Amino acid sequence: MTAQSRSFAREQGAMLLLVVLVGLNLRPFITGPGPVMEMIRTGTGLSYVGMSLLTLLPFLLMGVGAFVSPGLQARWGTRRGLLTALALLMLGSALRGIAGNGVTLLFTALLCGMGVAFVQSVFPGIIKQQFAGRMAMVTGLYSAMIMGGGAFGAQLTPWLAGSEHHWQQALAWLALPVALAWWCARKVLAEQGGKRPEPGLAKRLLARPRTWQLMLCFGFVNAGYSTMVTWLAPYYQQLGWTAASSAGLVSVMAVAQAVSAVGITLLARGQDRRPWLWLTLLLQFTGFAGLLLQPELAPWLWVAVCGAGLGGNFSMSLVTALDHLPQPQQAGVLTALMQGGGFLLAALGPLAVSLLLECTGTFAAGWTLHLGLVSVVLLTTLRFNPRRYAQAMASA
Question: By its UniProt entry, which InterPro entries does this protein fall under (predicted)?
């Protein structure tokens, strides 16, 4: 191996480490509060609708931020923007250690959401640029780390909170791995900020109906994810489960997501991603139907099946969006826009379920809602024929 090839291998290894560390930190601040929700409600006095804002606000910011991020990236550059975003996520997580009321806690959710919005808007483009020959595989790894981070947050917080209900300190500890990701980004991206997106590209992409179709599909599926991380643990606590046991269900879901996110990108062959998208949607439909009809018959199975569908769909949606345009910068902006509109829709999932819960007293209407959303996505993805990508994105 030549010195040049060794240097390239080290750079690729460092970038893969950054992919892992960044991905791991994009969901714990969302999944962490769910298993200790009753502790938080007791300590802050937040209602169920107020608790849903801990998920809704970050997802709204992820949506709005994805539209703003291409412009910020063009102005600041990738490295500076990424370091600032990770610093916001670290600060928001750390401040939860002193969050004694609902207003302060919601403010931390805003800080974390702002940081994550920029990171996940620009990162798929970084992956396509740095791993052109292995884009699908590395995207699967990145998606798996996001889901694995969700499992980490859900499982860790009730353990750290302990019997004395120290939920503030438990949530604040999640700032530590963010600091590690920030340090790695500072080292790895020191001299490789990547090309900046061309001005006006986002506006041109928004004129394409395909961009809005991608947003719809991504949003409806991730509404299922945001609902699950917010309400799955309380749902089973309502059925008599303990906080620790219900947190285990969230972790099972997240692990299934992670395995599926990697596995489906390794199995998928050819340019037509639709059969794999349909498989993930069928898994989601099965999981939501089980939660609705027979929640206590096989809860671990329903959660794992649904998680596999959600995780696999997340990674395949990113890959499908990146496939639409050949240039990494253009594909990155399209993916950012898909996430922007998608996360705005996803933010409404927990709120819709909370309103249905307060109206009906049960979660049945919420699970029925998600069965309908999955069906809409299935019909929309019929249009995603790779032979027509160039036509769908013409003049972008």
Answer: MFS, MFS_Cyanate_Porter, MFS_dom, MFS_trans_sf
CA-nearest of 253, 263, 386 to 315 is 263
Taking each helix axis as running N to C, give the angle between helix 48-76 and helix 348-360, from 0 to 180 degrees, rounded to the nearest 10: 170
Q: How open is the CA angle 42-48-49, to the nearest 5 degrees?
A: 130
Is the pTM value of this prediction over 0.85?
A: no
Cβ-defined contacts of 294-300 (< 8 Å, 24+): 295/235, 295/236, 295/239, 296/239, 299/236, 299/249, 300/249, 300/252
Confidence bin at 164 (pLDDT 50/70/90): low
Task: Tell me which of 166-170, 189-193, 370-374 is least confident.
Answer: 189-193
Q: How far is CA 19 from CA 114, 129, 264, in A?
A: 19, 13, 18
Task: Tell which residue, 310, 300, 171, has the closest CA to residue 236.
Answer: 300
Asked if 269 and 301 touch (Cβ cutoff 8 Å), the reply is no
Q: Are 69 and 118 in contact (CB under 8 A)?
A: yes
Can you say whether residue 361 is alpha, beta or left, with left for phi > 0 and alpha for psi between -120 and 50 degrees? left
CA 19, 321, 56 angle in degrees (round to 5)?
Answer: 70
- According to the per-residue pLDDT averaged within each range, which of 33-37, 44-48, 228-232, 364-368 is highest? 364-368
